[in-house]
Predict the structure.
Amino acid sequence: FDRVQVLLQWSASLLILWIGVRRWIAVSNISFLEISRSAYFGSMALAVFVIFEFIMANTTGKYLSDIFPFSIDEFPQADVFISGIARPRGFSAEAGFTSMAFEVLIPLSLPYLERSRNIERLIYGGMCLISVVLLYSTTFFFAAALSVILLQMIRLNYKKMTAILVVGLILAYIVAVNSDFFFSASGYKIFEFFDALNYSRAEGSRQEALAAAFSLLRDHPFGIGWGTVLQEAKTVGSPIDQMIGGTGLISLWMELAVATGVLGLIAFGTLVWKLLLGLARSERREAHCCFLALAMLTIHHIGVYEVWFPMFWFILGLSQLVQQADQVNRQRQALSEA
């Protein structure tokens, strides 16, 4: 049953959240500005709830999950980013998951914001900034910075932006090493990948998952089949269970690689990369917004599995439609100039 359940999760994600939603957007003739407006109000509403939960959690000890029964699971105690101050998590089990919603909503809101009044932009920017700071997802800030730099690298000057990226990484490393706050809040997540002496492959750790993924991919270069990794991880006594202790591979890309093999990973990775290149090289603002959202979620899913999250599949389908529209416009322009 577990194997069938996980296979259905992947199938639903691909067929409904990606292909189905993409088809619905295409036939409904909904404009990008309407999507942008929905993203604006969606991110504003989410920001209000995050800020409300932060206040509530630090005054009453209650979270949104205690008021709205949006899951049958009992969530663990939310992390803190400063000693004694509770960290909100929004409508999800972890703060980082809620940050992923902002990763798609904020970039898509930009076209609508361009047509808004200055006071609306100020309120929106303030609310979203406060929310993402309170959520304090390290990957969110890293993915946002890297996505902006990649967009500029592709469009403008590779050498200049590469230098900025290298300097930025060096500065981030120096800050993480010399700041107890940043190290306890973020740095350990990075160091556990590289420092085998101080960060052992404890059950459920990212280091353990990364090691298990490479081991499985080496032993099964053509994959072990769809929907099997997470299921096998929950099967006591199976080889995978002994390797990853029932946690899964903690990464959409790792799970995809082990399920479909090297060829499957290369094929899907090529699709996403070509799409990102096309969006970045476009002159349309909508394409750049989609690039930022898709790039941020692509990076974030390196450390997050949750295939049933709709954000990645939605922006993947929307980006394809935007790229197709851009190609049609270029062809029409070429014909008119001929």
In short: The chain has 14 helices and no strands.
